[in-house]
Amino acid sequence: MSHDNHDSAADQARVQAVKRAHAPALMKKANVVGVGVGLRERGGVRTDEVALVVMVRRKVPLADLAPEDVIPSTLDGVPVDVQVAGTLSTQA
Amino acid sequence: MSVPQNVIEAKETHKESLMDKANVVGVGVGYKVTGGERTGELSVAVLVREKVPAEQLDPQAVVPPRLDGVTTDVVQVGEIRALQARTDRWRPAPPGVSIGHYQITAGTFGAVVRDRASGARLILSNNHVIANSNDAAAGDPILQPGPIDGGAPGSDVIARLERFCPIVFATAPGECAIAGRAAGLANVLARLLGSRHRLQPVQVNPQATNRVDAAVGRPLQDDLIMDEILEIGLIQGTRAHALLMPVRKSGRSTGLTTGEITVLDATVNVSYDNQTAQFEGQIVSGPMSAPGDSGSLLVAGDSLQAVGLLFAGSDQTTVYNPIQDVLECLDIVI
To answer: Which of B106, B230, B239, B256 is the most buried (most CB within 10 A)?
Structure first.
């Protein structure tokens, strides 16, 4: 996907469409608490690349995951970035 | 430099009669200020709400220029108020302080909004803060501070529940299926008809999703609430959210915090005690909250525009409903 700022809105719209198509399946995977549109992180540093962000309770080694719980690195040509979000609870 | 004994004695001898004078709010020891300049002369400092010309005062309200040979200095300080915590009782109460339905712990009074139809000023917060996660009826007491901060149903009621957007839970201690929205509206209707019967919305559809966790309360009197959010100020309209937008919030537990939007259009599963609810179209930031901050208004970092309504989070993230969805669901304006 383009890293050019001019294409950022188009990138977001495309990721949003892919997110909508895949959210139900992604939300069923173990550890997944959310799916959204964000920016990819590489080595803990945020890039300007728009990605489908999968929010997980914690990161789990690939070897410890059942095949159906593995999150693909791309979906329909869109990069997928797994980010740790913890367990989301109401803040009351 | 130590304070000469005669200055301290003059202050101690006369402090009670000084405090009895109109306008005096405090007495102390300080360097005398003459013509705006601090001098090296220690004096008995008399703190007043406002300086008033001696000829306009009753003779007994005039502060003498000297006491037992020690100079006095009248210092204008305004009204002295104790610094209040966000978990304290506030009247009037500003957004940013503790609030809660009488059966919950505590959350945050997010903002003052207006009923779209009547223009009445209302308190905005979450359903799970002022409507007990659907388990409430219109007219239920809302306490400031919230119950966990000592708010009592007798003396600390600030508002009554006006209406809420029902939350549809994906998993619930269910019996029969009644749509949450229908039950929520039915509660309002039952209330209007004078019924005390409360309908419990139960939802068994695992596909069910929500857009907002929001509710409004009507203050018992209009002057019990202030418009300015603590440490932020008066909100001026709304702004659409965007990736990397700088944002801030003012909440009961963590006060004023700042961050930026990291994820948008998020679909998230959120834990409500022993239930889970799914939300769509949500805004996500880095960690900006702790339990008790629910209901805080998300405000743009560089303007006074409302962006969202805080309702969930973890140690790593905070999640908000987009403000436009909140306004539409509750039929309110900000």
So the answer is: B106
Nearest to A86 among B244, B292, B314 (CB): B314
Taking contacts as CB-CB distances below 8 angstroms, the residues of chain B near A27 are 267, 269, 278
pLDDT band at B279 (very low <50, low <70, confident <90, very high): very high
Contact B7, B46 (CB under 8 A): no
> Could you tell me the pTM of the whole model?
0.77
In this prediction the ipTM stands at 0.91
Q: Which residues of B touch A35 (CB under 8 A)?
A: 266-268
Residue B141 per-residue DSSP state: E
B25 — phi, psi (to 5°)? -115, -5
Distance CA A15, CA A51 (A): 7
User: With contact defined as beta carbons under 8 Å apart, do B144 and B158 qualify?
Assistant: yes
Residue of chain B whose Cα is closest to the Cα of A26: B267
Task: Find, among A66, A59, A54, A50, the residue nearest to A11 by Cα.
Answer: A50
Would the CB atoms of B269 and A89 count as touching at under 8 Å? no
Q: Which residue of B has its CA nearest to A84?
A: B316
